[in-house]
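Check these lines:
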Amino acid sequence: MTTITKPARSVDWTKDRIAALATPDVKQLRANAVRLNDPEITQRCDDVLGERPRGRGAAKKAVPGAAPKPRRKRKAPAAKAAEATSPETGGAA
């Protein structure tokens, strides 16, 4: 009678080791784990990915409770500003 066993892994993927990888590498490792039917590594990858911010703008979000930056007002072009204050054109002086 023969017993089928899983082949030994050459690398032991701990959660800390997975967390040290870049996000694209974690996604690739997860895809490989799914393909090789390894639910433990798949779950560890999911845990690591779940803790990371999503999207490119996630790191630039405002701090909760911080005041928003005031918007700058546009300045009128110099020629129009001079015309508006000139008594010859009837502008306010």
User: Anything to note?
Assistant: The chain has a mean pLDDT of 79.
